[in-house]
Amino acid sequence: LVHIHGHEHDVHRKVTNDWFKPSTVKNLQPAIDQMADEYADLLIELGGECDCAADIAGPFTLRIIMSIFGVPPEDEAIMLELTQGMFGAADPDLQRKSEAQTEAERLAEVQQVIADFFGYFHAITESRRAAPVGDVASVIANATVDGQPITPFDAISYYVIIATAGHDTTSS
Length: 172
What we know:
Structural class: mainly alpha
Number of strands: 2
Mean pLDDT: 85
Radius of gyration: 17 Å
Helix content: 55-70%
Order of helices and strands: HHHHHHHEEH
């Protein structure tokens, strides 16, 4: 979505437009409230002191974004690694490999992160096409663009932009 413009952007954006309207999102409120309670309890367990970004904001935001996709909680660690890897190739704290890297190695790391995203979300797409469940992944997997089924590349790119932008921007 960030790299397309005009009609193409508009028709791709419409794929999830209705899903993110307030009338639909309000149905998520009970689940979000429950997640917020869990993180408030965690804050208490941590004795009132923590790294808020690392211990609360990041994981809480990730859980919400992944629940929108229907990603199970046990896969959140994978998604955290991938979302951080997408933006972290130049950040030693977020790189998959901790040693210093050349520009070519960082590019290769980002390419591998993208390939890992595509592999993960390809499985989600196939699952949601076979049995839609009402989450945003089902909407994307079964979308049509200009009367044609969304391409695998466009579907997976859609998941990646929501996962990375939603998690990184909101938690930051």
